[in-house]
Amino acid sequence: MSGERARLDVAKTYKLYIGGKFPRTESGRYASFERGDGAGAVNVCRASRKDFRNAVVAARGAVAGWSAASAYLRGQIIYRIAEMLEGRAAQFASELHAEGVAEAAAAAQVEASVDRLIHYAGWTDKYTQVLSSVNPVASSHFNFSLPEPTGVVAAVLPERPGLLGLVSVIVPAIVGGNTVVALASESHPLSAVSFAEVLHASDVPGGVVNLLTGQRDELLSHMAGHMDVNALALCDVSADAATAAEKAAAENFKRVRRFDDVDWSADASASPWHIEAFQEIKTTWHPVAN
Amino acid sequence: MATKSTLAFEPGWQYDPAPESTDHVSLRDSYGLFIDGEFTPAASGKTFETINPATQTPIASVAQAGSEDVDRAVAAARKAYDTVWSKMKPAERGKYVFRIARAIAERAREFAVVESMDGGKPIRESRDIDIPLASAHFFYYAGWADKLNYAFPGASPKSLGVAGQVIPWNFPLLMAAWKLAPALAAGNTVVLKPAETTPLTALKLAELIADVGLPPGVVNIVTGEGDTGAALVRHPDLDKFAFTGSTAVGRDIMRTLAGTGTPYTLELGGKAANIVLEDAALDQAVEGIVNGIFFNQGHVCCAGSRLLVSEAVAEPLLERLRARIDTLIEGDPLDKNTDIGAINSEAQLARINEYIDIGRAEGADIWQGGSDAPQSGYYCRPTLITGVAQSNRVVQEEIFGPVLTVQTFRTFDEAREKANNTPYGLSGGVWTDKGSRIFKMTGALRAGVVWANTFNKFDPTSPFGGYKESGMGREGGLHGLGAYLDLGMGAGA
Q1: In sequence order, what are the residues at sequence separation of 6 or more whose Cβ sits closer than 8 angstroms to the Cβ of residue B93?
Q2: Peptide bond connecting B333 to the previous residue in cis, omega within 30 degrees of 0
Q3: A143-172 residues touching B, CB cutoff 8 A
Q4: Cα Rg of chain A (Å, integer)
Q5: Is the model's pTM score more than 0.90?
Q6: pLDDT grade, residue B1 (50/70/90)?
Q7: Where are the alpha helices (DSSP H) in B242-303?
Q8: Which CATH number applies to B273-452: 3.40.309.10, 3.50.50.60, 3.40.1190.20, 3.30.70.1120?
Q9: B478: which chain A residues are within 8 Å (Cβ-Cβ)?
Q10: Which among B470, B50, B448, B128 has a CA at the least distance from the CA of B296?
Q11: Which residues contact B365 (CB under 8 A, 6 or more apart)?
Q12: What secondary structure letter does DSSP report for A279?
């Protein structure tokens, strides 16, 4: 061999993440994404309605197991996600940079994302205590109220910050025992797909988080109209599109939460109230013998 | 195991009439809209009559609010919010709400009689349940007014502003209390629309609110039909909307409010499963089933309208249930012996009978028991529908009357599947002697209120509300307070 560099880089194929697997979009469509670091263009899947529907099937199938997992186990798994992300911090910083984030800001965003995961890992076995109540009814009954997951949450993720926004919206939903189908930021598809790999390496059961890349304009109406989706998280969706989505959501009373212009780097953007956003309160009564 | 029932209710017992006296009740011939502390006619001058469903006679005429009146009411509420209510010391605000609670308790008997006259419910229920609970609801929330900062860890709760509220005809005063008490305690002002068939106790509450000196405009009550409610929900100056009623109207409200950013709570329909496992105390279960479906003529969104009984005990349970139903006394709502009063309106009676016909057409068996119903007035005998499948309309759709469908199951999973297999998720019940099975079943039900070895219990401290198409948000308790506050946690939270 001569002295010149002979090894060719191995480029990554950016795929969807559905049911714990990495399929290409069934539609065969792609969007060309120009890397901001001069490394050329990559192809990103342009997910279809069918991909979304497949993801909902996976998410629904995962609800029973994930919501029944112990709070301790969910906490350990979310902690594990943080560990995996920390270990790949350099890769994520470089991908965020490729998506147009300045180098220092990209590194800071990865660190903030890891810290947010740690924050929520510690909530899994505490939010129930904060959101529950034992109710002193006047009759001879023992009465208590506690939160339960809403079910399948479909999320349009914040356009930016790509990674921290994704973590800040998805993680409180799964902390609370929900499963998620999320549409990644159109400007940050690379770090989203890579985050799926982190999830995959963290004992998060298949189907608990499903990540799609594609176009909001195309997919939002399908997300809002799907009858087996229980809730919608709409981040920075335009007023007209959000109104249309909320109207469609009324068909089966999806719980709609809108997150507009949130400073996701602020401490206040993580709280038990973000977990509560996708919880239902169940009250149980039982007689007490006189 | 066909255990022969040993129950022997002596047949033929006759009860002398025991009517509640009405001579202490003060009712006007006509009522205006209660806006800015005064009763005024509708701008259009339109009125409608409210009917006693037990006698089919008019009781009073009531103003019919149009959009102009709704505008005026919202403006009064806005002014009261800006100038008085939001500036008042929270403890003082609470004292006003306490006053309302005490005044209802003082006038409880009068309210109970009017409630039974206007809505048809047995005096036993309005006297022992509706009115005392309404007073208790105000008393509970009054105490929250100066304690909001202790309610939600890490949050900085603030009142929302003007709340629009629309309530149904099944628990007229109690639903008004569920809506008004948390709204006022949290520092909001209100425009409330009662149901068109049962406006009287809300209007008497307006009189009471004026009497206790609540500042004008803090509570405004506009009577009318669906159009009035539609004008209210469409009003651009609301900061909160709350509705109790049908799922169909709830869906319209959600569409109307789409994109406005106005927060809302919806308490909608239900089709609750009341599940009897094979080890249940059957006589207790029978009482719970009867209370679950025949309480308030079945006009209860959380009624236990679907009996799911283990095949092992279905035969003896149904035998005892039929025997028990045959002892129920249906008749004059004002008679203290009455178990089942009048159906709220002619339209509702027609709707119930239509569903009974649908059940028959679907091939089900219809059985009706209880005492003979009076010849006049709107009455429906307590009804069991057996031989139904999960897909039957009478199993899937809310009937809102004294009609119980009966299904059996063999395994826990079959019971859970059937219980959860409707679009609704408001309530549920489970009957078993074993604690571990109680929690297994209550945990498996996708419903907001679950009664174990009891049914249809309510309390101001106890959050109430639905999963799925039974609505969103909670009323009652700490969680019901949050529905009237901005927790200050940023968008979406």
Answers
A1: B85, B145, B146, B184, B185, B187
A2: no
A3: 143, 145
A4: 20
A5: yes
A6: very low
A7: 247-257, 282-294
A8: 3.40.309.10
A9: 133, 145
A10: B128
A11: B385, B386, B387
A12: E
SS (HEC) of B5-44: CCCCCCCCCCCCCCECCCCCCCCCCEECEEECCEEECCCC
Check if A228 contacts B (Cβ < 8 Å).
no
What phi and psi values does residue A141 have, to the nearest 5 degrees? Answer: -140, 150
What local confidence, expressed as pLDDT, does residue A6 receive? Answer: 85
Give the C-alpha separation, B229 to B64, whole Å.
11
B458, closest residue in chain A (CA to CA): A137
A130 touches chain B (CB under 8 A): yes
Residue A230 domain-assigned (yes or no): yes
CATH code, A133: 3.40.605.10
Q: Which amino acid is at B424?
A: Y
Is B450–A282 a contact, with Cβ atoms under 8 angstroms apart? yes
Chain B residues whose CB is inside 8 A of the A266 CB are 490
| Substitution target from B156, B246, B254 for chain A, most A beta carbons within 10 A | B254
**What is the CB neighbour count within 10 angstroms for residue B469?**
22
Least Cα separation, residue B447 to chain A (angstroms): 7
Q: Which CATH number fits domain B30-268+468-486: 3.30.420.10, 3.40.605.10, 3.40.50.1000, 3.20.20.140?
A: 3.40.605.10
Return the pLDDT at A114. 98
A4 inside domain: no
Report how far residue B103's alpha carbon sits from residue B97's, in angstroms, rounded to the nearest whole number. Answer: 10
B158-202 per-position pLDDT tens digit: 999 999 999 999 999 999 999 999 999 999 999 999 999 999 999
On whether residue A213 sits in a domain, the answer given is yes
Taking the Cβ of residue A285 and every Cβ of chain B, the question of whether any pair is shorter than 8 Å is answered with yes
Residues of A in contact with B266 (CB under 8 A): 253
CB B266 within 8 A of CB B254: yes
CA A216 centroid distance within chain? 15
All structural domains of chain B with their residue ranges = 30-268+468-486, 273-452
Of B250, B438, B449, the CB nearest to A283: B449
Model ipTM?
0.96
**In this predicted model, what pLDDT tens digit does every residue of B100-137 receive, in sequence order?**
999 999 999 999 999 999 999 999 999 999 999 999 99
How many A×B Cβ pairs under 8 Å?
Answer: 142
Task: Look up the domain containing A238 and give its range.
Answer: 30-287
Residue of A nearest to B288 (CA): A287
User: CB of A64 within 8 Å of any CB in chain B?
Assistant: no
Instruction: Indicate if the pLDDT at residue B5 is higher than 90.
Output: no
- % pLDDT > 70, chain A: 99
Q: Which residues of chain A lie closer than 8 angstroms to B459, CB-CB?
A: 135, 137-139, 143
Residue A212: φ, ψ to 5°: -115, 145
- Could you read off the pLDDT of B258-302 as tens digits, one per residue? 999 999 999 999 999 999 999 999 999 999 999 999 999 999 999
The dihedral through the CA atoms of B53, B55, B59, B61 has a sign that is positive
